[in-house]
Amino acid sequence: MIRKILSIIGFFLITITKLNAGVELTGAGATFPYPLYSKMFDEYYKTYGIKVNYQSIGSGGGIRQLKEKTVDFGASDAFLSDEQLKEFDGEILHIPTCLGAVVITYNLDLPKKIRFTSDLIADIYLGKITKWNDERIRKVNPGLNLPDLPITVVRRADGSGTTFVFTDYLSKVSSEWKEKVGRGTSVNWPVGIGGKGNEGVSGLVKQTKGAIGYVEFTYALQNKLPYGIIKNKSGNFIEPKVESISEAANVKLPEDMRISITDTESKNGYPISAFTYILVYSDLSKANDKMDYEKAKTIANLLWWMTHEGQKYTKSLDYAPLSKEAQKNAEKLLKKLNFNGKMLLK
Amino acid sequence: MRGNRLYKTFINIGGVLILGLLLSFFITLFINSLPSIKKYGFDFITSKIWDPVFEKFGAFPFIIGTLLTSFISLIISIPFSISVSLFVAEYYENTFFSRIFETLVDLLAGIPSVIYGLWGFFYIVPIVSNIQVKLSFSPTGVSIFTASLVLSIMIIPYASSIAKEVIKLVPNDLKEAGYSFGATRYEVIKNIIFPYAKSGIFAGILLSFGRAIGETMAVTMVIGNSIQLPKNIFQPGNTIASIIANEFTEAVGKLHLSSLIELGLILFLITLIINLFANLIIKRHGFEI
Amino acid sequence: MKILKDRLFKFMVIFFALLILLPLFSIIFMIFKNGFSVINLEFLTTLPKPPGETGGGVLNGIVGTLLLVFFASLIAIPLGLIAGIFLYEYREKKIGEVLTTFVDISQGMPSIVVGIISYLWIVKKMGHFSLISGSFALSLIFLPIVAKSTKETLKMIPVYIIEASLSLGVSYPRTILKVVLPSSIGGILSGILLGISRISGETAPLLFTAFGNPFLNFNILKPVSSLPHLIFVYAISPYDNWRKYAWGCSLILVIFVSLMSFLNKLLLKKWKIKF
What we know:
- The complex is a heterotrimer of chains A (346), B (289) and C (275).
- Chain B is mainly alpha-helical.
- Chain B contains eleven helices and two strands, in the order ααββααααααααα.
- In chain B, strands 1-2 form a two-stranded antiparallel sheet.
- Chain C has 275 residues and is mainly alpha-helical.
- Chains in contact: A-B, A-C, B-C.
């Protein structure tokens, strides 16, 4: 009797399944732009009725699931290296959606923001500087009463584009870091405890006095965490702001948009800034088995919308919008999108 | 087995299922670990380096983290498990009081792991952080010790429920004999109940241990997720289950993924051996759980 | 002196036993304190909002958990029953003993390993994450529980009932199906309730299979959300409204688990089963 009821319910549910059709997209990857994408996809659904299911499992996850063809698009703060690109069976486009920055956040009661130089950050994360009142930190912050507290280093436990951007910066400014640790979405951290996602790191920093961590700018703002002012390549101490982040992108951009703008040449640019990308097969028929022309067209439209109309949601959530040049390059890339040769955007 | 051939065939499917389940787990894990087994061989277990950038992987920090947290949580939980079982099966056996208590202990067992993780993160981590400051360690709050504390609470019901059953099985006449000689309750427990029930209690403890080893969510939220070998229990560490949960969906390199699966294989084998051992002890002493 | 030791020991036992109630009450208190204010009609019937916006709910998680458990039951209960009957039929034989041990070992399997296996078997083969892969993972945990409790309950049925049925001319398979199983339904149901309670709280196996979904989903081939997953993702996020969701979900889960436990107790009492 019970089994009869159960099987009826089962059939009923599977029928609903058929009724519930309609284009749904699946994407996965970076945690950094998650709040922005969350807002964008919500608005897109309200306007066009298209459901986008995005899970922020980390940039590493986005790349991997794109490769395993379990999603329609990936998202990553890290752009793929030449070797990584070779592992895909088709061309991968890096569509920039906005700019973000990695800030150094800390848990200390201080009247002003701490100033950091690049070598200070590298050496803290190498475990060479272990106390807040270290001579070298004090030198850069005259007048700031730094406490005699141990520095608890916090970093990401999961694979992440935020880590990629941060370690990319460290590899550029510290040859010791480059040699010992290198850059990647997951690295062999010399010191530090790991938090899951930007959320985990900011959570840990908030809970631990004297902790230092790196998180995306928006997460620091949301959590009302203090963040440091960093000396850039031109010698200016730059505070992370939407403007200074956009400034960092004010350099010559390559067509495929695979560029690292950390340690930027731009005079007033914040030194740990980066683009975040949606990764997608240029020939969408290669994305996965369930892709069809209809779906591919939807993805193309979605991405166009994200890089144009969607940009209006960036500033209010403390993300930096794409510069004119970045947007132009994005358009050129998007126009390459096709389904088995059939172009998707005019 | 009685019954016609159709029945027998049908039921035998059940047997094939059970046999196939464990076997296929092992085979799948093994096959998918081959790339890293081939590359590292036995060194995988002793190597301390876990470096996804330079593609060097070693399981040692995680094996140690797993063993440390499991042992410590076990030791902390034992007095509690035994007390609970004595409370319910001896001192207040069959009273309304103990039935309510048992229900509460069952509740403890039923709370999902992720909620233990939440509670550990918000309540236990600050406490441990204060302890760390007093002991002049880095006040991370998250650490091997924190994870062990949270784990110890989670595994109490496993040992206590088995211990309680075994203690109840101790024949009354043996106990009566003890009392008639003028023994106190404590002496009866110490000299009659414990020797009689000790293998059952031991099996229950083993089961608790097995549970602690495989626990994921609660641990990953309070252990600190460090990939370095911890120098003491007040440092952050990591367990096998926790690092798999952290890195599995994102492992981009083939070797990285294979190493994580090999870790899963190791975890599978350790859990298998412990549960097997516990089971054999129970069988040998003639009762079933 | 003897009396002193005795009193002291008793005191220690009671002390330690009651001490475990402290964390229990602390957890319950934490969940109620943070979750109670969150639960309202909107919370139970709408979908989550983007970060920073107030309101919204966790309907996707509630429905997701129900669906995951439902399909896991569809797989695990029938197969678990068959497996349990097997263990019962062969309980005197070596193969029965060995396989019972196998089942016991399976019950102790770490859920993260179950997640890896499900990912490799189902998600990779299918090419995407889905509700059915999540249910499959959960059924791997559920099945041994059902099998074990089926076997144990069947064992307790007195032989004379079977003999009586056979002597009336009823075939053996029919006896099992129509006489023995129905009388064991109490114990089997108890195992099922236990299993449901266990799998509805599992997170690890779902990380690599069900994937999560901010929308409602009834399609077994598509990803789906679940309460434990929402808790895990939202609890440590920096957004207030998301953290509130996590607490509300925790409360719902704990109430559900307590309900199952309570039903189980009633069941055991009604059918007077002693395990």
